[in-house]
Amino acid sequence: MKCLALDEEEKESLALKNFKDAIAEIEDHFTHKAKLRSRIHTTIQNRPEESYFSKLDSSIKKNTAFVRKLKNFTEAQKESILKDINTLNLTKYISEVANAIVEAKLKMTDIASILQVCVVLHEKYVDFAPQILEAWQKVLSLKKDEKISNPSKMRVDVRFYADLISSGILTPKEGLPLLGSFLTNLIHGDKEEHNSATIILAFCKFCGEDYAGLVSQKLLNDAERFKMTIPTSNWLPPDKRQNVRNLLREYYTSLCKHLTQDHKELQNFERQNRRILQTKGELSNERKEKQEILNQSFTKLLNMTQQFADILAEELPELRQDLSPRDEECSVLELCENMSDQARETLNELLWENEEGRQFYENLPNLSVYLPNLIPKVTVEAPPPPDPAEQLIDIEKEAKEIEEGEPVKDEGDEDIKPAELEDEKEDADVPVSLQSNKVLLDSFLTTLTACVNREMIDSAAIEFSTNLNTKHNRKKLVRALFTVQRTRLDLLPFYSRLVATLHPYIPEVATDLCNFLRQDFKYHVRKKDQINIETKVKIVRFIGELTKFGMYPRADALQCFKQLLLNFAHHYIEMTCHLLETCGRFLLHQPDSHQRTKVYLDQMMRKKSMLASDSRYLTMIENAYYQVVPVDSSARSSHIKIRPPLHQYIRQLLFVELGNKGSTNKILKQLRKLNWKDPEVASYAVRCLTSAWKVKFPNIRTLAGVVAELTLYQEFVGHRIVDAVLEDIRWSLEFPISKFNQRRVSMAKYLAELYNYRMVESSVVFKVLYTCITFAVSFDYNIESDLDQPDNLMRLRLVLTILDTCGVFFSSGLAKKRLDYYLVYLQYYYLFKRSLPIWTDDNPFPVAIDFGIKDMLLTLRPKLKAYKTLQEAADAVENLEKELMNKLSQAMPELQMDEVLADDTLACIEEEDMEEGEEMREVDDDSINDEQSLSRSMSQMTTRGETTQPDDDTHHVEDDRCVVTAPRKALCPEDDDFMAALDRMVAENIHEAYTRGKEVSKPPAVDIAIPWQVKASLKRPDGSDKNFLGDSIGGELGGALAVAEASSACAAIASSPPSAVHDNPTVNFVLMTRKGNKPQFKNLAVPSDSELAQNLRNREEAEKAEKERVKKLTLDFNERQEEEEFQDLYGGANRPAVHNVNRDRRGRFQHPKGVPDAELIFGGARKNR
User: Where does 355-505 have alpha helices with state H?
Assistant: First the structure.
């Protein structure tokens, strides 16, 4: 409690302090203005004489510059302007100075500074006050109902002018009339729109204390609270201040009325919008924009009213909230009655898709213009609208009937017959005098089918009403309209417009036609046959068009809709969809039919969800429904998945920018910068790199190149992507869903591109190829596989995609033989598919598959003769199996061939149930963690002619086999021969490379070679064959140095004690002399610190450093060359064609002999010249 009491005391003391500060500020303001007026009154009595101005600068240049400076006045220029006033003679320029001050674009913060300038000018120049008053009269002379062009500048100008009067520069007698007339005209002319409220509000804020004695409501409350008085200004008489106060309160009263009206209008508009949302389900963009404008203007007006109320110490008007019942409780009919004209117009616009459609259905020609004597027939008044409560009860009953599917039989339904038209025999009874009229009618009916636009059908209506309006002709017109061809649905809107145009004067046409259509519709509904669908569609579309023109009652159209929903199957579904497409939007947006239409649409979608019918009918129902009830854009946006920024950036790189020119290196650099140590980032990046179906098909090659380059830096990425690709292909074979066909083709292409970039071994590709034609494939005509339907040719497309992408690289070695074997099985699978009985003349085998197989064989094996029949392919498979089994029996004779033939035939390849231990032996231990995504079934897939183990670095060609048990090494003579040949080849290559390198990089000999006799005698003292320096340095120079060092060591050991060996080291050189023809060798001991020995050692060390440098450069060059080759291979797809830019610069070829100069030979102008 004590703490609360202390807080209250602190708040009270703070409020008192703020109030005293505000009072002190007001007193300072009044004191400052009083002192300023007193100073001006004293100073103007002692203005300087003319002799004072003659001493100042009167140059035009400086005075003109001073006037320009005043026009661009800011608070920072005050000191310089005051200094210029003391040095310049402005007597002749005082009018320009006054105009410049009035025209200056000032801010509220510049008022105090410009007032000081005006005070100084007024104290020095007697003409300043009259001139500035004249300038203000031009600005503030406001006529009645005149608009202010620049309210922001006028807001500052009014305060400036009022401060000039209150400061004493302008006397009240001179300045108040202009200010009073301006405020009076401004307030009286702005009581409706209040566009100038900001100007008057600024006057009240800054000048209200001086002119009207205004005190804010907060200060009044504080003064009453603390029992203190607020100082007031005595500058103006109380009666004048009261006049200004009354004028401002009058303006505030009009502002409050405006606020109340806007608030009421805003509430009415919001109520109308809610009702439109109830009836229609959406608002037009115009209404949304108008509501936003109304909200903004109301908020702005409310803010200004609150500020006025605080300054004038008045209370805010009470804004009453709408207490009317919610719109959901109001019926649609009440809405139609209470809606304003503007809302009604907006709602009518929703009935039509565009303005052209509204004009077509609503703006009909008036026949009375062409036929003045034609009198409109008396129309029957429309029945009164039903009671809303009863209408809702009826709608609920009808919805229950539709849901239960129990049609209510009307009287006479059993005897319904198709519409019967009168026979043409009546034409014989027509008098001879009317035979010409018959010819005109026949011509009119013939040309009626050509009326396919608005102008032509309106002309036909005028022609019929003018020349052919007889009872007999009307019947024939109705017959012609009703019997329109069932395929000419485009004529129905124009025929309906013709009927609607004639209806005010010839209502029989519309009545008879509607009766015929109603009777024919009931006949087709009761007959329930599955023929004549085009005639049924024509009937319902004709009814829909007449409904939009108002010729066919909306209640009857809804009854047709209800009858179709009660028999919602087969042709009735199509009739329902056509009826909705024609007039569903019109019925939904009409106030008297909205509720029933909405209920019927809900029942239709409910029946559609329970309908086990053809997908075509489901699509038709959805299209018709969403054409009547469009999908809300906000609902679609709510389903948009929000991803983190990093995920969006990765998707932008791979799915948008990939494939752009020059973007590959940028994408690779950005991917390398990712935090691959973060499991979440790495997992999402790998998933995006695996999703090849989200990349444009030509860019899959680029994506594989990015993966190959990225694997050099993040090795696990390649393993995980390859595993995911294989798993996806396997999943697509196990779940052959047609909507994923594009994805399956993209992943097959991706796998082939990964092989091209050496991310996958050929054995993996062949495993996938064999899986495509063997996994869950039945080669028995009587047994149909669920995973490989007879009409499903997607597996052949996958195989063609893989072979077209990477098949050209299976051209040598083991891969070539594997492809040859595989093409035999592929042709057998293709011919078996082609021979299935599902393919007939009506349903032929796809030509694209035939051409794809032929083009693939022609590309990969041009000389291969394709099999033409299934029997040829079967015989080829059998012969191939026998050949392979013979080779297998020779390579592994210990296997029981009977068991192999029984369990491991080369027919459909089946998955084996392997034990866990065997599976672990087949998979390398180091790659288990990286291959967890690869399923067990995929890891066990084996194909004939290849091992289940991954490729290794061994070169055993005959080890490429498949057995039932785990692979075992078989010893055979061929292995020994192969290893011997391999060792011999490797040795020859090494020797050749060493010889070639030695020839290229052998340094020139700088010393004479030491004879081998002398070299052999110079060995180490310990008896080893190694020299001191020769073995470490090498070369002839090293050998010579080694001889010298060895001799030195021998001599030192033989002649000196152990302690002296290191005291006087010497280097022995072999001195070769020639005596006669025989060389003589003598030992020469040279001290090790002599110049000769030192130079020898320095040269040897320099040679060694040079060799190391050359070796490093060579290794760097090789490494760089390999990297450039890989970059060329990886970027070959995106590399632009190289053009020879120097081709055009090359000079034209000229024959060496030159062209004979005719003028030189025969003499001519050059000779004369």
Answer: 355-362, 388-404, 435-448, 454-467, 471-482, 492-502
Phi, psi of 1083 (to 5 degrees): -80, 140
d(CA 284, CA 276): 10
CA 959 to chain centre: 54
DSSP letter, residue 432? G
In the chain, the amino acid numbered 694 is K
Closest CA to 65 of 110, 96, 95, 91: 96
Biggest CA-to-CA distance, the chain: 165
Q: Do 686 and 717 meet the contact criterion of CB atoms below 8 Å apart? A: yes
3-state secondary structure 582-642: HHHHHHHHCCCCHHHHHHHHHHHHHHHHCCCCCHHHHHHHHHHHHHHCCCCHHHHHHCCCC
Q: Are 157 and 140 in contact (CB under 8 A)?
A: yes
Q: What letter does residue 945 receive in the DSSP assignment? A: T
- If you average pLDDT over every residue of the chain, what do you get? 77
Of 540, 539, 545, 634, nearest to 585 (Cα)?
A: 545
Residue 98 lies in a domain: no
Cβ–Cβ < 8 Å for 975, 956: yes
Looking at the structure, do residues 626 and 653 belong to the same domain, yes or no? no
Given a cut of 70, whether residue 934 has pLDDT beyond it is no
Name the 3-class secondary structure at 968. coil
Claim to verify: residue 503 and residue 359 sit in the same structural domain:
yes
State which residues form the domain around 284: 267-321
Q: Give me the residues paired with residue 1068 across strands.
A: 1085
- State how far the Cα of 640 lies from the Cα of 1064, in Å rounded to an integer: 92
What does the DSSP assignment read for 434-452?
Answer: GHHHHHHHHHHHHHHTT--
For CA atoms 981, 987, 993, 998, the dihedral sign is negative
Amino acid at site 207: C
> Which string of DSSP letters, residue by residue, matches 1021-1064?
TTS-S--SSHHHH-HHHHHHHHHHHHHHHHHHHHHS-GGGTTTS
- Would you state the pLDDT for residue 692? 92
Same domain for 452 and 535: yes
Residues 6+ apart with CB under 8 A from 93: 63, 66, 67
Residue 1017 lies in a domain: no
Q: Which amino acid is at 948?
A: T
Task: Note the pLDDT tens digit of each residue in 459-480.
Answer: 998 888 888 888 888 899 999 9
Between CA 423 and CA 430 the distance in angstroms is 13
Q: Whole-angstrom distance between the N-terminal and C-terminal Cα of the chain?
A: 126
Q: Say if residues 584 and 545 touch (Cβ distance below 8 Å).
A: no
Mean pLDDT on 84-95: 88
**What pLDDT, on the 0 to 100 scale, is given for residue 929?**
37
- Is 226 part of any domain? no
Q: Could you give the number of structural domains in the chain?
A: 3
Between CA 878 and CA 886, with CA 884 as vertex, the angle to 5 degrees is 105
What is the Cα–Cα distance from 475 to 506, expressed in whole angstroms?
12
Query: Are 574 and 676 in the same domain?
Result: no
Q: Please name the residue that has the structure tokens 């983190």.
A: 644
Q: Report how far apart, in Å, the C-alpha atoms of 472 and of each of 92, 424, 509, 510 are.
A: 101, 11, 11, 15
Residue 1012 and residue 1030: Cα distance in Å, rounded? 14
Q: Which residues contact 965 (CB under 8 A, 6 or more apart)?
A: none
Length of the chain counted residue by residue? 1169
Q: What is the pLDDT of residues 852-881, one digit of tens each?
A: 999 999 999 998 888 889 999 999 999 999
Is residue 14 in a domain? no
CA atoms 334, 592, 413, 565: torsion sign: negative
- CATH number, domain of 682, equals 1.25.40.180
SS in 3 state form for 744-786?
A: HHHHHHHHHHHHHCCCCCHHHHHHHHHHHHHCCCCCCCCCCCC
